[in-house]
């Protein structure tokens, strides 16, 4: 085919300009191939009164579909278009075409004339206006410019001229990426030797490419997370910690974890995820928020003063002790340092024998004649009595004062009361709490021997101890 090299140059120009725009943001690139037909007749400017001129041009759109008489068609692929989407329904495309003109209106040139065209057009799709969004019916309008070369019938040389173009077309979408289309384009030549003509195109097209905002290799239309790079297995969403759980479903997206814990880790393996584990690095129990309880007393080790010995919370997790071994726990033992009896709350009870021994000692206490003052030689005896009383810290004593029957009753009663009070005063001075001691004089009312003998009266002049009820 003559001048084929020039067509190839035009085709290379088209491919070079292909970095412009196509269908939509998710499939921006489109390429269409098909066949074209050239018709010079229905372009207007019919020349009346000129012999034979009516054969070349008729009125505008006259015999527009007179394919048999007016259309020049190459029965092969003769048209290619590459376009790219610009946004808001607009695309820009470049196209190249070739043909053999064997019909100029109703006239026939002596030889078929070679035809080459290269065009650039802006197109606007009416599809979304008609169908809402998407749809199979896709009409469009286009405007643009181009350059056409047509072989001269006189010298066989190619002559070129620029054109202003306007077109209307329609595409029928057969799927998401495939369409068939028809277009009629009017090419207006401004130069005197230019040829005004219509070019009709039938083509099949595909759209491809895609917008990949986050650069993860997944086009936005298929990317569930189009603005954040992700993985194909998660439809383009990320898995930052690489634990196999996409971030949007991962409760701990920055730390690798387990699916059973919504992506959170369980560092100590106690079945409690770290965010809910108060002791995430030490295995524990759920009841204590994931913290351990080594002695099983219900108190977590960190709060347990005795973590290896079970004890009540009231005692900070330590068991109650019985230091004196009397069977009464120290917490209930009123005398925790001295063995006592359960009946006496852990304190020792004064036995009859002890009380008798104390009274043996108190009988040795001597007073100045007819006075309540204690003689100094009796101090050691009372010190011993005080020491024994210390061993029974809860026992309360009554200090009794007694006399013989010599003298008046009132005198004897007063004297015995004062002597009992002197003993009480001495014992409190040795550390016996006053609340544990009471004193009372009985005078001559409670003799323990006969007052008729000197020995008997000696026994009756005494200080005795008795036990008071608690």
UniProtKB/TrEMBL annotation:
Keyword Signal belongs to the record: yes
One of the record's GO molecular function terms: calcium ion binding
Keywords assigned: Cell outer membrane, Membrane, Signal
Pfam family, one: TSP_3
Cell compartments where the protein resides: Cell outer membrane
Region entry Disordered, spans: 443-470
GO CC field: cell outer membrane
Chief site of localization: membrane
Signal peptide: 1-22
The UniProt record lists the keyword Signal: yes
Entry-linked PANTHER family: LIPOPROTEIN YIAD-RELATED, STATOR ELEMENT OF FLAGELLAR MOTOR COMPLEX
Name of the protein described by the UniProt record: Cell envelope biogenesis protein OmpA
Taxonomic source organism: Dokdonia donghaensis DSW-1
